[in-house]
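Hi P.,

Sorry for the delay on this. The queue was packed all week, but I finally got your sequence through. Input first:
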Amino acid sequence: MGEINKNGVDVAIALLCELGRRGGTASANYITRTLTIPRSSFHRIARTLQESGVITLDRGVIRVGEVPRAIVQEPSFLLSKARAPLRARPAAPIRNITQRAPTGPIPLSAPSVRRVVRRPRLGFSNASLDNEWRFALVHAVEHAVARLGQAIGKLSVRHANDDADTQVAHLHALIDEGVDGLIVSAVDPSLISEPLERAHRNGVPVVLVDRAVGPNVPYHSLVWADNEQIGRVHALWLAEKLGGRGSIVMLGGKERALPARRRFEAAREMLTNFPELDVLEFHWTDWHREEARLIMDEAIANHGDRIGGVWCDSGLQGSGSMEAFIAAGASRGRIPPHTGGDLNLAYKLAITHRIPLAALDYPPAMGVAAVEVLQAALRGQWVPKTLHVASETILTRGQGTRSIRATLLAEEHVRWDLPDDLVLASGLGDSYDPTRFRVHYPGNRYNRSAADLGLRASA
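Then the structure:
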C-alpha cells in the first residue's frame, strides 16, 4: 500500500527531504499528495516536529524551523551533543511586528572551567513567592531536578521575598555551601553583580531564568521568554479590535520587575501607532488579582462605558479586571476586550462570559529548561548563551484581527478540570495541579515543594 504504511520516522524523514528539495518551504497539500499519507497522520507528525522546533506550520505552509537553521549556522552546536533543553512550540510569525530570525552563529557559552562533578549540588535563588506564576516556576525547577534523579546530588532553594539584599545574602550563602551550579531569578538584576562575579571566579556556572542582568555581569546562560513580544502583541490586538480608536485602561504587573516594565514599554510604543486610542488610566497591580479588581471597580465607576478595552500583561491581574466588570453587572458578551494569559481563571472567565481575549502565556516551563541547560554546562557541554522559550498566540474563538491570528484557541487551552490558580504553559504535563504538587529530589523535605515550605516559613 505504499507510503501509507511507513512509520512516523520514515514519514518525518521524507517530509524533511521534500522541504530540502523545495528550498525549505512547501504547502501541506503538496506534502500529503507527494508522500501519499492521510492528512490525519501528516498533522500528527507535523505537530511533533513543530513542537521540537524542526519545522513550523502556519496556515497550511510548512517551513524549516529554528533547530535545523541553528545546526547549519553553528557547527559547534553539533559538537556539544547537548540534550535539547525544552520542546517548546515556536511562536507563529506575527505580521506588522518585526521578528528577525538569527542571521549569524548562535552565541554559546564554553563548558564550565571546573572539573565535571558526577552528582552536582545545585542552588536555586528565587525572587519571591508573590503570585501563582512564581509557584509554577519553582515547581518547574523541582520537577526537572526530580526527573534527573540520582544524577543530582542536592537542590537547595532560597526565596528572597522580593528583597534584593536578602537575595544577595542567599547567593553568597549558597556559594559558601559549595554548590556546583546556580539558577537565579533576580529580584533586581542590577543589584546581584557581586555574588555573580564571585560565582564566576569560583567556576560556578550561573543560569539566569526569567530576568537578565547588565551587560558586564558574568553568567553562563539566560533562559527567558520574549516580554517585548507579549507587550506588543497584546497592544496591537487590542488596538485593532477597537478599530484604532476609543479608550482603554492599562494594568501592568510589578513596577520593580524587569519583565513587567519591558511589556509595558513595548505596549506603549506599539500604541503610538494609534493616535486616536486614548489611555484613560495606567496602574501597576503587582500581578495581584485582588489589586486589579479594586482598581477596576473604581475605573468602572469613574469611566463606565468609555472603557473600550483593558490591556493587561498577564491574566494574573486580568482575571481581577474581568471580575470587576462582572460584579458591576456587565452582561455576558458585553464586557470589553481584555488581554493577558497565564492563569487558568482568566481563560475560564473569558470563555464563560464571552469576553474577547488575546494572550501570550509567560511559560514557567523556562524553569525546566534552566535546569537542563545548567546540567549540560556541568557536564562540560557548550550551551546557548540565551535561550528563548516561545509561547502560543492564544485567542478566544473568532477574535482574530488583521494582524493577529491564533495559534491556539483559548477553548482548547483552558483546563476546566483543574483549579482556577493553575498557571498554564508550565512544562509539567497535562496532569499538573499546583494544589496537589508533590515532588521528590535530593535536598527537599517530606516530598513537599520548597514553594510550600517557603510560604509557611514566611507566614
